[in-house]
């Protein structure tokens, strides 16, 4: 665990960049520092690897003051990724990634093997190993930056706006890759961003900082969205807070009906038998059970073959109630389509049913929060 204990940083010109910040960064999880420009995020991150020394307070790594460790060994236990990757322009990709292993005295061949292995892990074609950074796209360079930080397998990763300089699509890919890598490797990651959506997507814990380097709130993302500490945090979270919070509620227990699902070759009788009073439509599937679209039940029973696109389906259990609601809202019939992991239709749900599930999830979360507050449960509050 990294403990940032009442740490302040004042610069000689009188600027207070960080003001008595206390944070416990849990092991093997992603802690995000987020806040507006100039609120002290980078300064905090750099105090963790001693690129900046605090004016007051102390930082402990696994219970030991980081000032008691030689700075080189401290930094080698902490991979560091920055915006624009910061690669060495005159070194090949493989040599960039192998930098720290080589510094640690690894054989060239061993370091190269490690570099190639890491390229695959971060989603880079090993054929790029001999190229130079300028021959790679911005997104590819960021992946190299992550691979380089992971090269000596440090327990801690410090990431300073690593994905800010790439377009939204590439950025989403990099975020997904980081979550995949983290699921495999379980590093202790401190991640700086000014993007609240990125913080909510990536963070197990999120620290919202305000100007003057003060901590506004430190909580799991779900708690931030459901209970922002004050107006500043609420404003920073932006609009759609309620809708975004639904991403933390699973669709697993959602009540579905499979009745209005009919196969492409269903007879008029079968269609009539499967039509439900609440809807004039049936969902037509192919022979493998994958949804093709909605059909007006009465017309189809009389031989009509018109299908209305069903929009996006949600994967039951894997996707959230936000995804289920989105599916219903975008559906021309007002009914969401649920599929299994193979894409086969397993049922449909009306908007009202999803709304009831949302109310139940909120009530359940409220109960869990009360239990935690009362100290009668060891459960975390997330999701
Ligand atoms: N060397 C310095 N001397 C004086 N003030 C500094 C120095 N470095 C940073 N600051 C100030 O400290 C404050 C915090 O800076 P920091 O870079 O940590 O913010 P940040 O939250 O990372 O910002 P951004 O999102 O814009 O990168 C800012 O007001 C900045 O101007």
TrEMBL record:
ABC transporter domain segment(s): 2-236
Domain of life: Bacteria
Record's keyword annotation contains Transport: yes
Pfam families: ABC_tran (PF00005)
Transmembrane region(s): none
Keyword Nucleotide-binding: yes
Keywords attached to this entry: ATP-binding, Nucleotide-binding, Transport
GO terms assigned for molecular function: ATP binding
UniProt similarity note: Belongs to the ABC transporter superfamily.
Protein name: ABC transporter ATP-binding protein
Source species of the chain: Streptacidiphilus monticola
Taxonomic lineage of the native organism: Bacteria, Bacillati, Actinomycetota, Actinomycetes, Kitasatosporales
């Amino acid at each position: 665990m990294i403990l940032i204990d009442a740490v302040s940083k004042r610069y000689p010109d009188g600027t207070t960049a960080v003001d008595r910040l206390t944070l416990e960064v849990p092991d093997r999880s992603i802690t995000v520092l987020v806040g507006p420009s100039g609120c002290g995020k980078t300064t905090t991150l750099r105090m963790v690897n001693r690129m900046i020394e605090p004016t007051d307070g102390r930082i402990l790594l696994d219970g030991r003051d980081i000032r008691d460790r030689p700075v080189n060994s401290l930094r080698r236990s902490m991979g560091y990724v920055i915006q624009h990757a910061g690669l060495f322009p005159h070194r090949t990709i493989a040599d960039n990634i192998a930098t720290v292993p080589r510094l640690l005295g690894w054989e060239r061949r061993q370091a190269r093997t490690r570099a190639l292995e890491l390229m695959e892990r971060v989603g880079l074609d090993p054929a790029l190993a001999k190229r130079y950074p300028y021959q790679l796209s911005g997104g590819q360079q960021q992946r190299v930056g992550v691979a380089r930080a992971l090269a000596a397998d440090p327990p801690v990763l410090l990431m300073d706006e690593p994905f800010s300089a790439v377009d939204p699509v590439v950025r989403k890919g990099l975020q997904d890759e980081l979550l995949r890598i983290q699921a495999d490797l379980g590093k202790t990651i401190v991640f700086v961003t000014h993007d609240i959506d990125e913080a909510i997507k990536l963070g197990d814990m999120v620290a919202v900082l305000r100007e003057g380097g003060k901590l506004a709130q430190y909580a799991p993302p779900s708690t931030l969205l459901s209970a922002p500490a004050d107006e500043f945090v609420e404003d920073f979270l932006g609009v759609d807070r309620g809708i975004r919070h639904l991403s933390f509620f699973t669709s697993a227990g959602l009540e579905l009906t499979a009745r209005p699902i009919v196969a492409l070759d269903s007879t008029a009788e079968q269609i009539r038998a499967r039509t439900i009073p609440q809807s004039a439509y049936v969902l037509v599937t192919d022979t493998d059970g994958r949804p093709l679209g909605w059909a007006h039940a009465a017309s189809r029973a009389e031989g009509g073959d018109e299908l209305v696109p069903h929009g996006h389906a949600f994967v039951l259990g894997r996707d959230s109630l936000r995804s289920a609601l989105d599916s219903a809202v975008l559906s021309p019939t007002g009914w969401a389509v649920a599929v299994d992991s193979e894409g086969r239709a397993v049922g449909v749900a009306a908007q009202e049913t999803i709304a009831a599930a949302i109310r139940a999830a909120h009530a359940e979360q409220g109960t869990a929060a009360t239990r935690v507050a009362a100290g009668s449960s060891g459960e975390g509050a997330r999701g």
